[in-house]
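Wed. Picked up where I left off yesterday with Glycosyltransferase family 39 protein. The coffee machine is broken again, so keeping this brief.
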Amino acid sequence: MSPPTPSPQRAFHEHSTHPPSYPATTSNWTARRQNPSWLPRASWTLARRHLGFKEARRGESVGSGDFVPHAAAARLSGHLFAPGKRLLCQFSRLDKSRYPVLWVIGLFVIQAIPAAIVRASNLEEGRIIAIARGAMEDGHWLTPFVYGARFAERPVLLSWISALLGEMTGGVTLWSLRIPHLGFFLAGALLIYSLLRSSTGKSAAIFGALCWISMPMVAAKFINAEPDIVLSTLLFAAFHAWWTGTITKRMTLSRWSGITILIILAGLTKGPQPVAYFTLGVGAYLLLKRREQIPEFIVASILAMLVVCGWYVLVYQPQDIDYWADHSRLLTMRGLALVRDHIDFVKSILVETLPATILIGPAVVIVLRRWRTSGNDLMFAAVLYSLTCTLVLVLWPGGVAARYAMPATMTLAVVCGLMFEHCRQRSPRVIVSALFVSCLIFGGLLLRAWVAMPFWPHLFQESRIAGKAIAAALQDRPGPLHVVTNSTEYNMLVYVRGPIRSVTLDHLARLKTSGVAVMLPVEQAALAQQDPSMRLVDLGSIVSMRTPYRIVEIQPSEPR
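Structure written out below (tokens, as returned):
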């Protein structure tokens, strides 16, 4: 048996206190230093490092001349990463957790509860609720209407769900939207955890869920219930069902039927284009690895597209073709504007998908090295799902926005979990970097949810304040509230009970009875100029989403 190799620390100590006696045949110091074969490897490495630093202090040459800077950089890097390695060590202890899924639920809840309660309606929430009210109050279930104005841009599954919940609770409110949205949000985090647990340990699965919740693109949805989370969760559920059936070799008719239904629901959320994340990603994997599933995959995709396209056929009107082409962002930009837009898209994706941006490069390298020889490779499937359609968006001949890549975030989180399991021992520093960024973003979200929102709620409730002012102005004035089409901010109308009608300035000028309207100051001036005999009474000024509006009572000068 060979003698044990001394530890690096012991070798370094022995060399420092008892310098070795060099062979007598070696008279030249440089030759002795460049011929370390007679020393144990660990002893020589540390001795060379020690002597190198001493020579540098004496101003002597150190062989190639670059050893000292590299050693100093290595020591500095080690000190910088020491706290991160301790963080990684503590996080890895989650492998011993008895109920790890509770960590995923807890991470979600502490972010969702204060944000959902304090934050008033914002961004697209007002429009979604307006469509839900149109379905429940006016019966516009098939073709969406926004306070009487037709909105046939795309199917609106989230509005239909909100309307059904409103039917059961007695009216559509902000919670009719946020409750199902948060349900899909939590389901998405649990699906990521579940898929990772089939291939990794507990801490890696929790890390994947944490990465998804912490991505800036995803974290914004804690205070903004839009269809993107619903769409992403439905598509990922289809991916989860397909992958589970693939690795268990149980791709039965019922499983393909379930996948088809999930794709249909995803297509009815935002139209057929985002479904390409599933069809292109999974289709590429099947083409490269599992061609025997291609016939069933094609049938499922065709059936799903037929149902989704059927909605467009049912609501079709002659002017809708141009409308839909504009919504699909086809040829909406050209030249330098298109180039700048796509550069902004790439930059936004790199920032808004952190910490996955740190890990996707190494993951692609790993996949390229082993995809031909590996069997069912979850990382390969997740990378294809994440990048194939995203690359199509980069090359899309029209305007694109970062939120269009939302479905990719869930498989990027899976990649993060797999990389955690694969690299935390081999390349801990890249995992430390991703973990640190995740915790940093998550901590910032906690400060927003538990400090900024409770202590400065007025900064997050602008639309609620404006809506209550409108409701107060309507208390003693019967009749519907009139809003001007295409210029009204819908989030403030979430807090207004009673009928609301979207009209034009020409319609307001022809009113025969008094009515209350909300409009921009320039629209009030235009209405007064259009009919000088009309009396416009200011009932108040409001601001919603940083846009000033006027609450105006319109009093015709005489019966018309």
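Quick read: The first helix runs from residue 8 to 17.
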